[in-house]
Amino acid sequence: KSGFVSIIGRPNVGKSTFLNRVIGQKIAIMSDKPQTTRNKIQGVYTEDEAQIVFIDTPGIHKPKHKLGDFMMKVAQNTLKEVDLVLFMVNAVEGFGRGDEFIIERLKETKTPVFLVINKIDEIHPDELLTLIETYKDLHSFAEIVPISALQGNNVDRLLDQIKKVL
Ligand code: GDP
Ligand code: MG
C-alpha cells in the first residue's frame, strides 16, 4: 500500500512533532528549514507493506493579503491530489476560528479527511468527548483519532487507519 497524505492544521498543533515520531528526527529537522517548494515532502514512512508520503500544504489558513488568495488556490488543488488529508487540531485550545476556515476548505474537496486531535495528554477524558462531539457536527470526517504526538499515544493506531484508506 502506498499513497500521499497531506497534514494540515494551525501552527503549533503538533504537526512536526507527529512527523518526528513517525518518520524520525532527521527528516523533520530538514522540513523546518524554509523552502520555496509549494508542496514539500516532509517525510516518507516506509515499512514492508506500506509507503506513506507525508506532504506539507502551506496556505490553508485565513489569507491576510492578496497573495494569500493565490496560495489558497494552490493549496486547494493539493488537497484534491492527495489520497488522504490529516487535519490536526490542538485538544488544549479546542475549536477556533482558524479551524472553521480550514473546515470550509475541506468541504470543497472529496478527499477523505481524518480529524487528528493532538495533545490529549494535556486534557481530561471528558473534555475529549466534548471536543469530539463538537467536531463531529462540523464535518463528516472519515475518522476522528485522538493522539499525543509527544508521548506517542495512539500514533500506531492512526498509522494503521491511514494504511487502511490507501
Ligand atoms: P507545528 O507547528 O504544528 O509543527 O507544531 P510543533 O510540532 O512544532 O509543536 C508545537 C508545540 O507543541 C511544541 O512545543 C511541542 O512540543 C508541543 N506538542 C506537540 N505535540 C504535543 C502533544 O501531543 N502533547 C503536548 N503536551 N505537547 C505537544
Ligand atoms: Mg511545524
UniProtKB/TrEMBL annotation:
Domain Era-type G: 1-166
Annotated coiled-coil segments of the chain: none
Location of region: G5: 147-149
Cellular compartment(s): Cytoplasm; Cell membrane
Chain intervals for the UniProt region annotation (G1): 9-16
Domain of life the protein comes from: Bacteria
Keyword Membrane appears in the UniProt entry: yes
Record membrane topology: Peripheral membrane protein
Positions with a binding annotation for GTP: 9-16, 56-60, 118-121
UniProtKB keywords: Cell membrane, Cytoplasm, GTP-binding, Membrane, Nucleotide-binding, Ribosome biogenesis, RNA-binding, rRNA-binding
Presence of the UniProt keyword Chloroplast in the record: no
Residue ranges of the region described as G3: 56-59
Region feature G2, mapped onto this chain: 35-39
Chain segments carrying region G4: 118-121
Primary role: An essential GTPase that binds both GDP and GTP, with rapid nucleotide exchange. Plays a role in 16S rRNA processing and 30S ribosomal subunit biogenesis and possibly also in cell cycle regulation and energy metabolism.
Subunit structure, as described in the record: Monomer.
Protein family: Belongs to the TRAFAC class TrmE-Era-EngA-EngB-Septin-like GTPase superfamily. Era GTPase family.
Protein name: GTPase Era
Range covered out of full length: 7 to 172 of 301
